[in-house]
Specification:
Elements lengths: L1 H35 L4 H28 L4 H13 L3 H14 L4 H13 L3 H14 L4 H13 L4 H13 L5 H13 L2
Helix pairs in contact: 2-3, 3-4, 3-5, 4-5, 5-6, 6-7, 7-8, 8-9
């Protein structure tokens, strides 16, 4: 009997040691997490949720302003920006369009709407916006570049693409990345 009792006591002590080690591991994990603070995806998701909540509140307030004053270009622009940031392209395009209706000379609104139209793969509409930008700002290297990219990759019109890339290059863009892309695309058309 003593042997059995000794084995039982030994097994009980072993279980206690294992349980104690598990408890210490869990405690160490919590202590480490507490000392480091929240990190990783959970923290990023929380930040996104806070931003979305802030944006939702801001959107609601701006929508109310626009209902009271449909000609409030500043609120319409902010709505366009918020929807663009959220990658809600249909709404972004709608609100940038309202800004353009109020001021057909607002090239920034055309840029933003054209970007949304590209995201929605509405290439003809995007081309129309880039054409409007070029009318407003003939030396816009960016508008010529995007027009060229649509012509090259979506419309299979390499001659039009080359023409716009040459105009973009002639505008002497200061952005070295854009300049490199223009040169790369021009070289690929030769």
């Amino acid at each position: 009997m003593r042997n059995t009792e000794g084995t039982a006591v030994h097994a009980l002590h072993a279980r206690k040691i294992v349980i104690m080690l598990v408890a210490l591991s869990v405690a160490a994990t919590f202590l480490t997490a507490f000392l480091r603070g929240p990190t990783g995806p959970g923290r990023q998701e929380a930040a996104k949720a806070r931003q979305a909540g802030a944006d939702a509140g801001e959107i609601a307030a701006l929508m109310q302003k626009v209902q009271q004053n449909p000609g409030d270009a500043e609120s319409l622009s902010k709505l366009g920006e918020l929807f663009s940031r959220a990658k809600d392209w249909p709404n972004a395009v709608t609100f940038w369009g309202k800004v353009i209706e109020l001021d057909a000379g607002d090239d920034e609104a055309y840029y933003h709407r054209a970007h949304g139209l590209l995201e929605l793969q509405r290439f003809d509409d995007a081309l129309a916006d880039y054409a409007a930008i070029i009318r407003l700002t003939p030396g816009s290297a960016v508008a010529h570049y995007y027009t060229a990219m649509i012509q090259k990759y979506e419309k299979n019109a390499p001659d039009l693409a080359r023409e716009h890339l040459q105009k973009a290059l002639a505008a002497q863009p200061k952005d070295k990345g854009l300049l490199a892309e223009i040169n790369k695309e021009l070289a690929s058309l030769k």
